[in-house]
Amino acid sequence: MGTVIMNISTTRTLTATEGPAGLLRELSPAERWYWIIDQLSTLNVSARVRVDGELSTEALRAALDSLRARHPYLRLAIADEASGPRFSSTDNPIPLREVHSDEVDNARWAREVDVHEFAEPIDWRSGPLARAVVIRQPGQVTDLIISIPHCIADGTTALALLRQWVQLSATPPANRGDLVGDLVGDLVGDRVPLPAESLFQAHHREMSDLPDKEPEAENESEPAYEGQVGRFVPDRFVPFDQRRTRMLHRAVDGDALENLLLACRRQGVTMHGVLAAAMACAVARDAGAEPRTPFAVGSPVDFRDELTRPVAEDEVGCYVSAVHSVVAYQPDDLWTMARFVNSDIAERRRRGEQFSVFSLLASGGPRGIADSETFVRYIEEHGSFNFFVSNIGRFEFPDAAGGLRLSGAQFVGGISVVGYFASSVSTCHDQLSWNFTYIDDAVSRERAERVVDDCVATVLAAADAVTTTARP
After folding, report:
1. To pair with 346 at 20 to 30 A between CA atoms, which of 17, 31, 72, 168?
2. pLDDT of residue 472
3. Angle, alpha carbons 233-260-468 (nearest 5°)
4. Is the previous residue joined to 398 through a cis bond, with omega within 30 degrees of 0?
5. How remote is the C-alpha of 244 from its chain's centroid?
6. In what order do the strands lie in the sheet with 44-52?
7. Closest listed residue to residue 403, CA positions, set 13, 54, 4
8. Where residue 225 falls among pLDDT bands split at 50, 70, 90?
9. How far apart (Å, rounded) are the C-alpha atoms in residues 123 and 108?
10. DSSP one-letter code for 199
11. Which domains does the chain possess?
């Protein structure tokens, strides 16, 4: 397959640190943490959608400019000052790279994310804090990708921005203002939204450290663990600044997805619960663990609705934090594991554990790359988990925009230095996209594919067993 890549020319202005624009607020402790580890190992969040229909480069460029005008975070860079990193304004447009393929390739977008978006950091010094890719294929088939650094975005943010970009591209310029409205949230100096931490309820802002007590056992699936909790063990240690996120795409759709949804309803568990349980099973089998061995699986959770004001999914920002569940490996009972994960996450969220890490970062997080190694190594050796599943659930993405047909919308996030094996899950366009990531060299591709396929097979087999038993 022949591929030609070209950069679309855009007008560049002074970088954020060269011009007279002036410095804006400091990065919050969480934003600073993500900014630091992004410099160690690229930490982007990417979203993709397939578009069928005529879509000009001019319309895409104009829509990106409208998107940038709407969101203050997309008009920013970061200045690394002696006092710490600060946001800085920039007039630079969102970069748009165009890729041409001579054949329709449904996996081309995933390779683009794997090879480029997870390997090349976004230029935070010059800004803006986003970039985009258009993959042109024969027959007016186009894949669109937008990538944002994790310091200002989560999976919901990435998909929301992608949705707006497509809708703006399909809308005549005169009507774009009516479409996008004005959702900029709380601003500082009319430039930078306030960080997520400023919207925490008072009792969450006052939490001083991470809880050191596990929740009391609520059912027989909770392991009575006194020794080491199982984690994903890498093949080899890779220095933090040499780590590289790699991606493997999987999806469940059609009858298999309907079967899985039906099985979850019959078993009284959420989709997230069964996916997290399946990952724990696959990691345990990979380790050759005995039944009932406890494994810690992380679950990034969205807290937009738990703030002093609800935050809309269209507002740019990172509004997730992770909790973990230590679940007993039960190879013959995925559903009991899933029920435990569900109840455990609910209890941890009730206790506010999703906010605890912010206090830790505020009190003990590094100020920059120079003093980050001790903290990063502590997370590596003593963190609650090192494999996780980030599931944003069902995301509403239109099937059409103007005369364009849309399909396959999904997101995937990098890992950086916070683990070795992860997955990003979203359900759009009648498809559950289960995108897996792992750290290159620390995990061989053969091993990653084996564990990934085990995850998917475990879920589908458990669903088949439930629906087959339920048939009259």
Report:
1. 31
2. 56
3. 110
4. no
5. 16
6. 3-7, 96-101, 131-137, 141-149, 44-52, 404-413, 400-401
7. 54
8. low
9. 24
10. G
11. 3-196 (3.30.559.10), 200-470 (3.30.559.30)
Query: Amino acid identity of 271?
Result: M
CA count, 13 A, side-chain hemisphere, 328: 17
157: amino acid identity, one letter:
T
Residue with token string 């359900």: 427
Q: Which residues pair with 153 in a beta bridge?
A: 317
Tens-place pLDDT, residues 89-144? 999 999 999 999 999 999 999 999 999 999 999 999 999 999 999 999 999 999 99
Say what angle helices 353-364 and 334-350 make with each other, to 10 degrees: 60
Amino acid at 80: D
Q: Residue 341 in contact with residue 273, Cβ under 8 Å?
A: yes
Q: Which two tokens stand for residue 88?
A: 């800085």
Amino acid found at 7: N
CA dihedral 13, 16, 18, 22 (to 10 degrees): 120
DSSP 117-159: ITTS---TTT--S-EEEEEEETTTEEEEEEEEETTSB-HHHHH
User: What gap in Å lies between CA 55 and CA 280, rounded to an integer?
Assistant: 42
CA–CA dist 350, 208 (Å, integer): 17
| Residue whose C-alpha is closest to residue 434's, from 38, 104, 110, 144 | 110
Neighbouring CB atoms inside 10 A of 288's CB total 7
CB within 8 Å of 203: residues ≥ 6 apart:
352
